[in-house]
Amino acid sequence: MMKFWDGTLPKPGQRTVEDMRSVLADFNACAENTLYFMYRSLSMNPGDKEWLSARCLRYDITVIPPCLLGDEYVKTKGHYHPKAPDGFGFPELYQVISGEAHFLLQKRDLSDVVVVRAKTGDVVLVPPGYGHVTINPSNETLVMANIVSDAFKSEYEFYEHNHGAAYYELFGNVFLKNPNYGDVPKIRFVDAFEVPELKILHNQSIYDLIGDDEVLEYLNNPVILEKINFKI
Ligand SMILES: O=P(O)(O)OC[C@H]1O[C@H](O)[C@H](O)[C@@H](O)[C@@H]1O
C-alpha cells in the first residue's frame, strides 16, 4: 500500500465485522481482521489545524483493505447526515487516494439511488440529502480522504434498521436489492466527476483546499450547492 500520510497518525477508529453485522447482506459473515480504519481530524501543521477547527471542519482518512464478507464486498457502515441550520443536509467531499471505490448514495425518500465509481485521484461530492456507503470493490486497499463539517453526528439508525443500503454489492460487481426495502429505483451508475466552480478537481489533493477561505464554505452552508444547482 502507498504511504498515504506524511507525519504521525492518531490512533484510528476501527470497525469489525461485529460492528457491521446489522448492515451486511449475510448476517453470519465472518472476518478475522478489522474491516476498516478511520483516522479522524488530521492536519499537516498547526496552521491547518487551527484553520480547520475555526471553521468546524475536519479532514479524515479511511483505509479499507480488500475483503469479502460472504459474497459481499467490504464497505463502510452507512449513514445519513442531518440538516445544517440553513435547512439543507450537510454534504461531504471525498477523494480516493489509492484503490477504487463505489460510493453508493441514496436519497432519504429513496427516490434516487446512485453508484458513483471512483478511481485513484478522483473526487466525489456527496450531496445534501443523500446517505452514503463506500464499497471497496477491488482486491487492493482503498484509501480515501474526506473533508466534512464537524458540527453534526452521523445518523446510522435507518441503515441499521433496514440492514444496510438499498442494494448490496456482491462479488463480480453484482448489485443485489436489499429485501428489507420496498420499491426502490434502479441504480443510476455515474463516474466520479469534477465540480470546477468549487475547485473539486481529479488528481488535485482536496487537502490543498484547506486554507482557502471561500471554497469549502458549502460544507457548513449547503444552500450554496443549491444556488449553483449541484446535482449528482
Ligand atoms: O461512519 P461510517 O458509515 O462507518 O463511515 C466511515 C466514514 O464516514 C464518514 O464519512 C467520516 O467522515 C469518515 O471519516 C469515516 O471514515
From TrEMBL:
GO terms for molecular function: glucose-6-phosphate isomerase activity. Keywords: Gluconeogenesis, Glycolysis, Isomerase. InterPro entries: G6P_isomerase_prok, RmlC-like_jellyroll, RmlC_Cupin_sf. Gene3D superfamilies: Jelly Rolls. It holds the Pfam family GPI. One of its GO terms (biological process) is gluconeogenesis. Pathway: Carbohydrate degradation; glycolysis; D-glyceraldehyde 3-phosphate and glycerone phosphate from D-glucose: step 2/4. GO terms for cellular component: cytoplasm. Transmembrane segments: none annotated. Its EC number is 5.3.1.9. Residues 16-180 form the Glucose-6-phosphate isomerase prokaryote domain. It catalyses: alpha-D-glucose 6-phosphate = beta-D-fructose 6-phosphate. Belongs to the archaeal-type GPI family. This is glucose-6-phosphate isomerase. It comes from Methanochimaera problematica. The lineage of its organism: Archaea, Methanobacteriati, Methanobacteriota, Stenosarchaea group, Methanomicrobia.
